[in-house]
Amino acid sequence: MDTKWLDDFIALADTGNFTRAAMLRNASQAAFSRRIRALEMAVNATLVDRSTYPTRLTPAGDAFRARAAELLGQLRETIQDISTGASGGALRIALPYALATAFAGRWLGGWAPEKLRYMLLPGSMHDMFTALVSGRSDLLITFYSPSHPIQIDEQRYERLTVGLDKVRPYARRDFKAAEFFPGTAKRPCPLLTYPPTAYFGRLVETIVERAPAPLRAERIVECEMSDVLRDLALAGLGVAWLPSCTIDPIMHEALTPVDDGSWSLDIQVAAFRDREAANPALRRLWERLTARPEMMLWQ
């Protein structure tokens, strides 16, 4: 049995919806459904009543949910104990690739008066939250938008806004934005974008839904990593929605927004921590971030 099937099952039990649970688990609905079926086959019981909406658990599913949560809790505590020892007391920070470079340069030096050791764990949204809830990271710093709240146990995991950013469509300065953006049926905009299931893919979808005109685009490249899409935009391959933190001052000479602000979305940079985490360095850092708003990453 794959332990991620247990996380899948808990997500489905919490949301009561296959589509929402699949998005939370960063999987297609078809793949997610196959994993739930595989879990049911592994335990030789029907756990989900698929004839109701919202989806409900069967009596066997209710009993299994409590056991699954207990097993996952024990597994995470074990992993946390082992990984904390392996990290040598370093503060383990999970964050997306797009923030990793900026994080090291902008923030680490000013975050604590005493010298702390850090272990940076860059990854995808799914990887990061898995690291946090499994105890393999002490702190998660990621992009966040109230329009797409992240499904996480708010009783256990505390969120703190530590920065503000904006997602805007960018292209190389010599790109003829007036001719290609937002595109027409005859001349679609070449789009460098995110997979629909990715967090930024959903943010861009919201931007397009609220935009003043239809987007007529042709998807040239799909990639979950903003840094990759930024580099492709720098190469002149099309338009990419990017968080502004991924564009340093030198890049501003080459990349420029192609909109007037009406195709943009204000977002936050948020920190998440487990309220039950025992790392004293994490507690000290969290107290400083909470007490001193001027320590925000950027505004």
UniProtKB/TrEMBL annotation:
Domain of life: Bacteria
Keywords: DNA-binding, Transcription, Transcription regulation
GO molecular function: DNA-binding transcription factor activity; transcription cis-regulatory region binding
Keyword Transcription regulation: yes
HTH lysR-type domain segment(s): 1-58
Function: NodD regulates the expression of the nodABCFE genes which encode other nodulation proteins. NodD is also a negative regulator of its own expression. Binds flavonoids as inducers.
Stated family: Belongs to the LysR transcriptional regulatory family.
Protein name: LysR family transcriptional regulator
Protein source organism: Bradyrhizobium frederickii
